[in-house]
Design brief:
Helix content: 10-25%
Distance between the termini: 23 Å
Radius of gyration: 16 Å
């Protein structure tokens, strides 16, 4: 999020029309957790309440697993947009796997500090692909480096836009993304840094909402 202006703006990407999953939709950058994400060293940790709520409602909760969710979000943001979140004055970063090498090359040490847990959603049954997704928000100031040439006409995301909340709602959005934008708007009004219940959509809709 960019909160420098009077009206906050969100970063969203348009998916390629040729992909099978959600073609042409505007989405938040993200993807699945990879095994190496749980082994990445970090320069800074979540706020304690974020770490605690990420461990709620899961089997075999652990700090490592909770941190892997945020690290996956940081890695996917870098892969899809070229934006790197982390610290630049904490020493050399040793990458875990090829996907983390851009951080080492840019002298950026990944950090979870400043990430806010906004919502969790599970894709409804019967869909071709199902996901158990955690949505995070972070201020644009957390980005400390950028890799150019990531968003192109042939990439998974073909366009990046910074849009206000009202502008975001006018885009071609997946249903759950629209719901999470509303959740984010409420959280910003209440205070992103506060320890507040996190919505959990068990069937991907507001009617199936619980809280973590």
């Amino acid at each position: 999020m960019d909160r420098q202006a009077s009206e906050p703006k969100l970063l969203m990407g348009k998916r390629h029309e040729g992909v099978r999953f959600m073609p042409g939709k505007y989405v938040f950058p993200g993807g699945r957790v990879e095994p190496e994400d749980g082994r990445v060293n970090i320069a800074g940790a979540y706020a304690p309440h974020v770490e605690r709520r990420l461990q709620a409602g899961v089997q075999r909760p652990s700090i490592t697993r909770a941190r892997a969710y945020g690290l996956a979000a940081i890695r996917e943001l870098a892969e899809e947009t070229g934006l790197l979140i982390g610290e630049t004055e904490t020493g050399a970063f040793e990458p875990r796997g090829e996907a983390w090498k851009p951080f080492a090359e840019a002298d950026v040490f990944p950090s979870l500090e400043g990430l806010h847990f906004v919502a969790r959603a599970i894709t409804p049954p019967g869909r071709p692909k199902r996901f158990d997704t955690r949505f995070f928000a972070g201020d644009a100031s957390l980005v400390t480096a950028k890799v150019d040439g990531i968003v192109t006409a042939d990439a998974e995301l073909v366009e990046l836009v910074w849009v206000s909340l009202s502008e975001a709602r006018e885009l071609n959005l997946p249903a759950i993304t629209r719901i999470v934008i509303d959740d984010l708007a409420r959280r910003m009004d209440e205070g992103l840094e506060r320890d507040l219940p996190v919505p959990f959509y068990r069937q991907g809709s507001q009617s199936e909402r619980a809280y973590l």
